[in-house]
Amino acid sequence: MAAAPRSETVNPLEQGVNHLYARCVRRAMLCGVDPVTKKDYSYRRKWIIDFMKVLAQLFAIDIAFHAELANHLHNVVRNRPDIDAAIMVCGVYVDLNQIRAGEAQTPETSEYTSAHDRIEAMEARKELEVAMDDHSVDAKMPDNWLCPFTLVEGLDVSVADSRSSVTNTRVSDKGVLPIEFTKYLELLDASGRIVHDGKGSIPDHLAPILERLGIRTEMWTEMIQHFDTMFGRIVSASQRVAKHLQASGRRWIHGQTKCRQAFG
Predict the structure, then answer these.
(1) pLDDT of residue 81
(2) DSSP 8-class letter at 134
(3) Residues 112, 99: contact at Cβ < 8 Å?
(4) Distance CA 153, CA 159 (A)
(5) Backbone angles phi and psi of 175, in degrees to 5
(6) b/e string for 150-163 if b means 16 or more Cβ within 10 A?
(7) How are strands ordered across the β-sheet holding 17-23?
(8) Quick one: pLDDT at residue 147?
(9) pLDDT at residue 116 above 90?
(10) What is the 3-class SS of 148-161, one letter each residue?
(11) What three-state secondary structure class fits 93?
(12) Which pTM does this prediction carry?
C-alpha cells in the first residue's frame, strides 16, 4: 500500500506524539553483524545514541522511547502528550524490539533501548538514595536525554507544558505516562516473557494498569507482538480515528478495526 502524504499524518500546527522508524534496505546491516561479510557494525549504535543525545538538546521535541537494532531504529517522540493508551502500547513495543529480534533476553540486557537507560538510572538513584521524582540529579543519569517517565500528578495531559528542563539535555521535565516507572517495568518484564516464550498472558495484578489507561487486556498480547502490522498511521480510540479520517477526507484506514477492539 502506498504511503500517505506526511501532511496527512503530521500536522506541524498540531502538537502530538509520533512513532518514528527507519529500516535499511537491500540486506544492509546498520548496526549488527553482516551475515555475509561477517563484518561487525555494532559500534555504530553508540554513534546513533550520541547523535540523538545532541539532537535532544537542540530541538523542542521530547524523546520518550527508543530502540536501536541490527537493521532498523525506533523512536517515540512528542511535543505534547496525546493518548495514554496508545503511548503505552507503542512504548512497550519499542522497548521489547531487541527481545523480539532475538538480540536480548530481558529488558535490562537490551542495551540500546530506553528501557535499559531508565533501568540503569533507577539503579543509580537507589545507590544515591534519590527519589525517582527528584530531578536534581537528572543531568548525571544515563536517561538524562529522555523525557521523565512519570507524568506529574494532576497535570492535564491535553495541555502542553512549557516548563523548561532543569538539565540542558532535553526540552522539558514533563513525564510521558501517568504511572510509576516501577509499575511499567513490571508490565514490560511480563510482556517480555510473553514475547520471548511465544505464549502466556498478563498477570492478574497488572491488568488494572491497562484497564485504567483504557486498554483491553485481552488484546495486549497481540498488540505487543504484532503492533507494526495491526495498526497503520494512527493508533487511538475510535473517536480520534474518526476525527482523523474526516480531516484527511478518507473513509477507511489500516488498523481502524483493531483500534476499536483495543481501545474502544
Answers:
(1) 46
(2) -
(3) no
(4) 13
(5) -70, 175
(6) bbeeeeebeeebee
(7) 17-23, 72-78, 62-68
(8) 86
(9) yes
(10) CCECCCCCCCCCCC
(11) helix
(12) 0.74
